[in-house]
Amino acid sequence: MPETFRNRIDACQQRVDAYLDEVLPLAQTTPRRLHEAMRYAVFNGGKRVRPLLVYAAGECVGASVDRLDAPAAAIELIHAFSLVHDDLPAMDDDDLRRGKPTVHIQYDEATAILAADALVPLAFSVLAKLDVAAATRVTLVQLLADACGSIGMTGGQAIDLAAEGQTLDLPTLEHMYALKTGALIHASIVSACQLREDLPAEDYEALDAFGRDIGIAFQIKDDILDIEGETHVIGKPSGSDLKLGKATYPALFGLEASRARCNELLSSAIGRLDRFGDAAAPLEWLAGYIVERGQ
């Protein structure tokens, strides 16, 4: 895998963190506890995989990096919101996230709910202020709304909760993954595409398919890590999915089949990038990282 993008990851992470720091209300702004909790939820050691995908996809299609900051930050705000809600007692009831107390443990449940809720309108405000054509802003807002709503991430979470203790067939399971995790990852890729004027339809279709493949692979890898990972490495209690009776790829089809499907999706995703040549090297590296992390 090319090394150049890996060497720039820190710079990309710092770039989106600086933008997030700018758009989030200061902790001392009233109501202070709410704003402290919002910042705690966002700045808690995340790897910023979704913003990295935005930057890498933007590099692949030749989009201006200055225009990528807003969608990268907006998508990360939505991701942070989803994690706060996922960790709540009514959901997965987790005490740790990225090795730190979850927001409802660090503060309290009501504050956690409010902090997560406040991150959502902030994400759309960030996109609404982006200095691009009005039609492009509308498209970016629509992409993110679909990715996090009932036909995206929130719907996938609802299916996940309803499936606890159930046996799902493979198409149903992968559909859940495509919504629960894949929708926001897919949005990271296609949002960057919207910021390149006159992108050929064939290029968009290839990156659209890449985003769908790697989004499902990401969740399967998460399921594998829940079984094989150690708490101090994965940042949350291992085995939590098994404890909750979650319908996961390893639980339904076994670890060997899970690894094989991950590798199949990785191969398919990378194959979609052939048409871009060296410009796709950052996306190729990130795809490999997503599937191979924790190894």
Walkthrough of the structure:
This protein has 295 residues and is mostly helical. It has one domain (4-287): Farnesyl Diphosphate Synthase. Helix content is 72%, strand content 1%. It contains 15 helices and two strands. The protein has helices at residues 4-23, 32-42, 49-61, 65-87, 103-106, 109-128, 134-148, 153-162, 170-194, 201-228, 231-234, 240-244, 249-253, 255-271, 281-292, and strands at residues 96-97, 100-101. The chain has a two-stranded antiparallel sheet with strand order 1-2. Strand 1 and strand 2 (100-101) form a beta hairpin. The protein starts with a helix and ends with a helix.
Brief summary of the model shown:
With 295 residues, this protein is mainly α. It has 15 helices and two strands.
Salient structural properties:
Farnesyl Diphosphate Synthase, mainly alpha, 1% strand, 72% helix, two-stranded antiparallel ribbon, 2 strands, 295 residues
SSE map:
Elements: H1 4-23, H2 32-42, H3 49-61, H4 65-87, E1 96-97, E2 100-101, H5 103-106, H6 109-128, H7 134-148, H8 153-162, H9 170-194, H10 201-228, H11 231-234, H12 240-244, H13 249-253, H14 255-271, H15 281-292
What would you call the shape? Answer: globular
Q: Strand order of the main beta sheet, please?
A: 1-2
- The third-level CATH topology is Farnesyl Diphosphate Synthase
Distance between the termini: 16 Å
Q: Helices and strands: which structural class?
A: mainly alpha
The total beta strand count reads 2
Radius of gyration: 18 Å
SS summary, helix count: 15
Share of helical residues: over 70%
Q: What fraction strand?
A: under 5%
- CATH class reads Mainly Alpha
CATH A-level architecture: Orthogonal Bundle
What is the residue-averaged pLDDT? 93
Main β-sheet description: 2 strands, antiparallel
What pattern of helices and strands is seen along the backbone? HHHHEEHHHHHHHHHHH
Indicate how many domains the architecture comprises: 1
Q: Looking at this structure, what is the CATH superfamily? A: Farnesyl Diphosphate Synthase
Uncertain segments are none
